[in-house]
Write a structure and sequence with these properties.
The chain has 353 residues and is an alpha/beta fold. It is built from twelve helices and 13 strands. The strands form three sheets. Strands 3-4-7-8-9-10-12-13 form an eight-stranded parallel β-barrel, surrounded by six helices.
Length: 353
């Protein structure tokens, strides 16, 4: 249940423009006014992914704390790990406003931010002073005006890599023109080779993940899985937002941009299961897209995820959602006789194929 303070805060935020509300939620976190649960863990929930030890498998997806400005409070919000960004080499304003839309009837959002962020230098400075109580990663992006986007990803990793526990190559945002073209086999292979070359030069060779779009065919999913394995990636995050607009009720559903939230759940989980099958358990997968409850987090794990991430559901359920999902997940694992998250991973994959 959402507590009364959270409910009141959400009611106020939902009267405001969505992007203004987003900024205010970060300020509220930093003010210390938001009650936070601290670490949520148990012997069942504690797990390891790509060598990183997590108190629980529920992570914050990239996009909420784009500029790494609320790491302290987010580290106490019940998540097992955090992902911030996306960061680009140069600061950029992103696309014109309005660019974030609530689809309240659909428990969803559409965004066309376009990688608005303070740039890698400012973000690296904040990450240098980050809390060390949980793994924190950075989503790598490319500048809209860049002539060499592969170089941009490598540059951000070289600058910020020493201050994070993992990095994610984001070629799946629909809001930077032709970025998704980098998911093609030749472009993706070349991009990942450059990124992994930079990783090899870091003092600590952190895990590198790839974040993919949900709008891929089974053949494309299998191809990307094979490229990720051969490139030496630590895992794949499935999935980013969708361009699809099926069965939506909200008036704002015609806005351009990436759709996230509840309507994405089934589509992204099917991609996750197909990816799990295609990679034969060779890579850990992080399931993201439409998670709003412990049952949905559990479904992602059983479809093939070793961990999960959430973001949009917090718009409707508040920051306390992470802890509630982690505790609920613990109960579901216990109910079904699983002693660890890893034991449950992939046990329900066939339901999604």
């Amino acid at each position: 249940m959402v507590n009364l303070i959270e409910r009141a805060g959400l009611a106020v935020l939902h009267r405001l423009d969505p992007e203004t509300a987003h900024g205010l939620s970060l300020r509220a976190l930093n003010s210390g006014l938001v009650p936070l649960p601290g670490v949520v863990t148990s012997p069942r929930l504690a797990c390891t992914i790509a060598g990183m030890q997590l108190a629980n498998p529920v992570g914050l997806a990239a996009g909420y704390d784009k500029n790494a400005t609320a790491l302290g409070p987010l580290a106490r919000a019940g998540f097992g790990f955090l992902e911030v960004g996306a960061a680009t080499p140069e600061p950029q304003p992103g696309n014109p406003k309005p660019r974030l839309f609530r689809l309240t009837e659909d428990r969803a959002a559409i965004n066309r931010f376009g990688f608005n962020n303070d740039g890698m230098a400012a973000i690296a400075a904040r990450l240098q002073n980050r809390p060390r109580s949980l793994p924190i990663g950075l989503n790598l992006g490319a500048n809209k005006t860049s002539n060499d986007r592969a170089a941009d990803f490598a540059h951000v990793l070289a600058t910020c890599g020493p201050h994070v526990d993992f990095a994610t190559v984001n070629v799946s945002s629909p809001n930077t023109e032709k970025l998704r073209d980098l998911q093609g086999p030749a472009a993706l292979t070349a991009l990942l080779a450059r990124v992994m070359e930079v990783r090899a030069a870091l003092a600590t060779q952190i895990p590198v993940f790839l974040k993919i779009a949900p709008d891929l065919t089974p053949d494309e999913i299998a191809e990307i899985g094979a490229i990720a394995v051969s490139a030496g990636l630590a895992g794949i995050i499935a999935t980013n937002t969708t361009l699809s607009r099926e069965d939506l009720k909200s008036a704002t559903h015609t806005e351009t941009g990436g759709l996230s939230g509840a309507p994405l759940f089934e589509k992204s989980t099917r991609v996750l299961a197909q990816l799990s099958l295609a990679t034969h358990g060779q890579l850990p997968l992080i399931g993201v897209g439409g998670i709003g409850s412990a049952e949905q987090a559990y479904a992602k794990i059983r479809a093939g995820a070793s961990a999960v991430q959430l973001y949009t559901a917090m718009v409707y359920e508040g920051i306390g959602l992470a802890a509630r999902i982690a505790l609920g997940l613990d109960a579901l694992l216990a109910r079904d006789g699983f002693n660890t998250v890893a034991e449950a991973t992939g046990t329900g994959r066939a339901d999604w194929l």
